[in-house]
Amino acid sequence: MTDKRVLQIGRIVLRLCLSSAFLVAIADRFGVYGGHGTKGVTWGDWTHFLQFVAYLIKIAPKAFIPAIGVLETIIEFALAVALLVGVYPRIVAWSSAALLALFAVTMSIALGIPTTLGYGVFTAVGAALLLGAVARPRFIWDPLSSENASEA
Questions:
Q1: Nearest alpha carbon to residue 108 among 150, 63, 56, 31
Q2: Residue 79: which residues within 8 A CB-CB, separation 6 or more?
Q3: Of 41, 53, 61, nearest to 102 (Cα)?
Q4: Contact status, residue 20 vs residue 76, Cβ threshold 8 Å
Q5: 106-136: buried (b, 16+ CB within 10 Å) or exposed (e) per residue?
Q6: pTM (two decimals)
Q7: Which end is more exposed in the chain, N or C (fewer Cβ atoms within 10 Å of the end residue's Cβ)?
Q8: CA nearest 51: which of 71, 40, 36, 38?
Q9: For residues 80 and 15, is the Cβ–Cβ distance under 8 A?
Q10: Sequence-ordered list of residues with C-beta below 8 angstroms from that of 33, at least 6 positions apart, any chain
């Protein structure tokens, strides 16, 4: 396998992994994997997710927490879909890196750096930055097609 092919596969894998990380987190906050307290579930419902947001962002007024939660969820969903589809991969990857870096800083302040490292948030930041560096700066409709494979 050539380095070029490994790079193509790596781009796709990074996009899928970052996208799935966003989508899994969103699904968790809506109870898709079970309710709060279920093994392997972080939030389990919207209420517990908002409590976590409030805990992480202690300086935010309580009235703003629902709006922050909704905005964060919308941004994560948009980035996840854009990563899956391959829309502007460089811009989306770097936007994902910025959002994940914001999560990492916020989590580090509230929970401590060791906990944040344990969640792999800094690794995700690095992955998104790397994807942005190696992604083609154009719109790609079907990144898995043989026509676009060399440019994915």
A1: 56
A2: 18, 19, 22, 92, 95, 96, 99
A3: 53
A4: no
A5: bbbeeeeeeebeeeebbebbebbbebbeebb
A6: 0.86
A7: N
A8: 36
A9: no
A10: 27, 40, 41, 44
Closest alpha carbon to 101 in 135, 125, 85: 125
Q: What is the mean pLDDT of residues 61-76?
A: 97
Two structure tokens written together for 51: 């409590």
Q: Which of 20, 3, 18, 5 is nearest to 152 (CA)?
A: 5
DSSP annotation of 35 reads S
Structure token pair of residue 73: 């969820």
Q: How many residues does the chain have?
A: 152
Is pLDDT at 52 greater than 90 in this prediction?
yes
Q: How far apart are CA 129 and CA 112, in angstroms?
A: 23
